[in-house]
Amino acid sequence: MLEIKNLHARIAEDGTEILKGIDLTIEAGKVHAIMGPNGSGKSTLSYVLAGKDDYEVTEGDILFNGESILELGPDERAAAGFFLAFQYPIEIPGVATMTFLKAAINAQRKARGTSEITTPDFMRLVKETSKRLNISAEMLKRPLNVGFSGGEKKRNEIMQMALLEPKLCILDETDSGLDIDALKVVSDGVNALRSPDRAFVVITHYQRLLDHIVPDVVHVLSAGRIVKTGGPELALELEKNGYADYVGQEAA
Ligand code: ADP
Ligand code: MG
Ligand code: MG
């Protein structure tokens, strides 16, 4: 589904290279975890995948179902089935969460050249999805993210992910300091949405999220490169020994 080949990327503003040759293949149906110390480039990788224009790809390619997506903007990538969960969700005071979610679905439909979702169909979809994920729809009447607790922001994010039916979900949970409630929302949501035609990239600094979302493959990112790939046991080993074995003492 996703093939990252020798990906090099730099910060557009000052030219600093952050990603220094990443190779990664992610098959449909799989959950890949990317772990690594602070500053190793985990968030940069998620932004480059999403197509954020603060970064420039200088070498290599990103293929989605065999086709390069480098020329596609963030909206086109979303239409193709990418979903990036934001580490720091935006607050929109005047806009009910429900309205925002409907607009997000319609933006995706427009980019795909399909007709807008009708209000009754949208209401039905929200009801089904909130039931399936065990997320209360009450919160959706409130303005987007305003005064939301950490757990509520995560519920909203998972709800959005479910409604958009993405093919590739990228969750960057690195620095968000998830409390137990939020951790459970994210892991239950991901587990409920796991399916044979969907892949997940779960980015996390800490192992504890991976107690709840058991990944198929674990990668260690260090200084812009994947330095180790293994199974779920690799995450446990990192929890015990830290990153020192892979990245050198100073970065661990
Ligand atoms: P991680 O998510 O693994 O902690 P990041 O991808 O956030 O790492 O950052 C990797 C490195 O790139 C850090 O040294 C960070 O300061 C730097 N960096 C990332 N994005 C920017 C940016 N837009 N401007 C300046 N520095 C950046
Ligand atoms: Mg960081
Ligand atoms: Mg980060």
Automatic annotation (TrEMBL):
Q: Does the keyword Nucleotide-binding apply?
A: yes
Which UniProt keywords are present, listed alphabetically?
A: ATP-binding, Nucleotide-binding
A Gene Ontology molecular function term of the record: ATP binding
- Alphabetical list of Gene3D superfamilies matching this protein: P-loop containing nucleotide triphosphate hydrolases
From which domain of life does this come?
Bacteria
The family database entries (PROSITE patterns) matched by this protein are listed as: ABC_TRANSPORTER_2
**Family affiliation:** Belongs to the ABC transporter superfamily. Ycf16 family.
Would you tell me the protein name for this molecule?
Answer: Putative ATP-dependent transporter SufC
**Lineage, top ranks:** Bacteria, Pseudomonadati, Pseudomonadota, Alphaproteobacteria, Hyphomicrobiales
